[in-house]
């Protein structure tokens, strides 16, 4: 992953963090004593500061640190989220969002407004005498163009991989994992098919194959586990470093027998952890739009095919009409599913409205609050 990809990933994470921060501040306004909400807001600001420091966004880091210091005092009980502090926190959150947007677009935020907010944040802090020391913060930066780390010699690892049915249900393929392993060292593969039932008793939804790998590589165990990272929850994985081999190479047959020896432990595959529900992934909207267009074209051609078949005056109950009706139902289900993917939540729209209402109330000297 290039530095530009990492940078874009950081800004995508910032969107979620800023949303969590804004939502937390509104909840804090309703319940000032909710420590969980205070901690949630603090973590969001802290995460933004840490990521910005890695990319040397000094203005964003400096302001986020001052904001974080006030939140830290709030969660320590040295401050209270009263009517005097909450407007300052809301304005600081708005300016933090402006700084993130400016850093993403290569522009600059309102420096004068930022300086004024820094004064407000500092004034909100309790007089503890060590505030100056607390503001001494040096962000850690990352050099994304480092040379590869020197190798520390080769090691041999024995890897037991027992996939569950969920692994195949989510479109994963063990062949890809084997190919990835072979690219980081010398790989020997042993397949255990003893649990494979006869053809008559075969259940396509059941995973019956298991693998044992012997990998000699200059990379360590973390590199091996990284390959299995996305399937770890849908499999049983054991990685252990093999003992040093004897000076005399053993014959091929005993080695194969050694690789097969862990097979009796295979029933542990039934204890694979359940895959968490409610997971989401980020997909470029252009790809989603293309999928929507393709499905739309498919529905149109399905309708044209239906009209063409109707002109043939086929008898009711014919195989063609039954198959066409099933195709029609599948097309409708696919269209509804794809449109549900493309649907966007309206929550972000109202989140922008909260800021508009606050700024309008501040400009007119009136008190206003948007309730959704």
Automatic annotation (TrEMBL):
A Pfam family recorded for this sequence: H-kinase_dim
The keyword Zinc is assigned to this record: no
Region (Disordered): 237-280
Protein name per Swiss-Prot or TrEMBL: Signal transducing histidine kinase, homodimeric domain
Organism, scientific name: Tranquillimonas alkanivorans
Segments of skewed composition (Polar residues): 269-280
A GO BP annotation: chemotaxis
Key words of the record: Kinase, Phosphoprotein, Transferase, Two-component regulatory system
């Amino acid at each position: 992953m290039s530095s530009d990809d990492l940078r874009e990933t950081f800004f995508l994470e910032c969107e979620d963090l800023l949303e969590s921060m804004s939502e937390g501040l509104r909840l804090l306004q309703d319940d000032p004593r909710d420590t969980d909400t205070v901690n949630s807001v603090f973590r969001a600001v802290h995460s933004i500061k840490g990521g910005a420091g890695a990319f040397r966004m000094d203005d964003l880091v400096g302001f986020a640190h001052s904001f974080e210091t006030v939140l830290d005092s709030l969660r320590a009980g040295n401050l209270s989220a009263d009517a005097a502090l909450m407007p300052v926190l809301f304005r600081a959150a708005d300016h933090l969002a402006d700084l993130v947007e400016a850093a993403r677009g290569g522009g600059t935020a309102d420096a004068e407004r930022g300086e004024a907010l820094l004064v407000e944040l500092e004034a909100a802090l309790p007089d503890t005498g060590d505030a100056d020391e607390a503001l001494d913060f040096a962000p850690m930066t990352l050099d994304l163009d480092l040379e590869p780390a020197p190798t520390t010699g080769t090691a041999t690892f024995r890897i037991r991989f027992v996939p569950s049915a969920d692994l195949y249900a989510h479109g994963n393929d063990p062949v890809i994992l084997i190919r990835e392993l072979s690219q980081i060292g010398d790989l020997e593969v042993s397949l255990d098919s003893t649990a494979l039932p006869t053809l008559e008793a075969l259940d396509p939804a059941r995973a019956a194959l298991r693998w044992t790998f012997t990998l000699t590589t200059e990379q360590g165990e973390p590199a091996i586990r990284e390959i299995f990272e996305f399937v770890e929850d849908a499999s049983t994985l054991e990685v252990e470093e093999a003992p040093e081999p004897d000076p005399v190479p053993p014959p091929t047959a005993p080695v194969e027998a050694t690789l097969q020896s862990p097979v009796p432990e295979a029933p542990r595959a039934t204890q694979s952890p359940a895959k968490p529900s409610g997971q989401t992934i980020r997909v470029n909207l252009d790809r989603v739009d293309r999928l929507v267009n393709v499905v739309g074209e498919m529905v149109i051609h399905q309708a044209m095919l239906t009209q063409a078949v109707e002109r043939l005056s086929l008898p009711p109950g014919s195989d063609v009409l039954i198959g066409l009706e099933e195709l029609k139902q599948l097309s409708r289900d696919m269209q509804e599913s794809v449109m549900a993917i493309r649907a966007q939540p309206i929550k972000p729209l109202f989140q922008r409205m909260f800021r508009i209402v606050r700024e309008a109330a501040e400009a007119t000297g009136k008190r206003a609050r948007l309730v959704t």
